Amino acid sequence: MATRYDYLTLDVFTDRPFGGNPLAVVTDARGLTTEQMQAIAAEFNYSESTFVLPPDDATHTARVRIFNRTSEMPFAGHPNVGTAFALGLLAERSGRSVGASVVFEELAGLVPVELMRDATGRLLGATLTAPQPVALGDTVPAAIVAPCVGLAVSDIVTSRHEPLHASVGLAFVIAEVTGDALTRAKPLISAFADAVRRFPGRFPVHLYARAAGAGLRARMFAPLSGTIEDPATGSANAALAGLLATLAPEADLTLQLEILQGVEMGRPSMLAVTADKQRGAVTRVRVGGRCVPLMEGTLTV
Question: Which of the residues are catalytic?
């Protein structure tokens, strides 16, 4: 017998429809199997979709499972921001309140998310705290990274750091490039496949370039996971902030960044990222932004 499931979609890290990163949220996924969740995520065909379940610990808000087009993910940025916003929106409609924050149980650990409101109390967006400390892994030769994104080795900026793996719950290869190179970057699937043979596992590449002031511009490519390019990648930008804070000479620091992503895709996204550093170690990384609800409906399984 077919069962109907409610869902809503929203655009994350934007204050206007059809910008930011789209997200589908199945608000009560009880009864769905893992295989069905994966099939639904592939059907939505967004970078990620989320499935909300009762928490294992009643002191937490929900258990949230995140799927991209091809696999389940331990953690991701815009799904947490968007799911928190969606649950807050639905609670308000029913006359309830989820409070100022929520806590999600995920494969990478607990993810606290604070809801953002304006002076009148209107829900605007959310800010997550990464579930894991920043972890910096092996460097990756620029000669491997550059072909993946259609660039020359000379386009990779190595004066501050070599391309390297970094994670706050989900790993990315992070590389700095020149501003012109960021605009020209274009993923080449065969080069990604070759990189994975040399560096087994996930190989998403997150590029960034310096912008005016304290801002950065970024692009993220993960074609082997079905995401040719991502409009806004909270988990990658959180790892980037953790990396930059780690490299900063100050022992104590609060690094605040505004990161613009998705421009080349026609889906501009703005992410506010903060990394706190104490006694030489990054202790907390947060990433947030605004959300816009877009569509609602039911699906039949």
Answer: 48
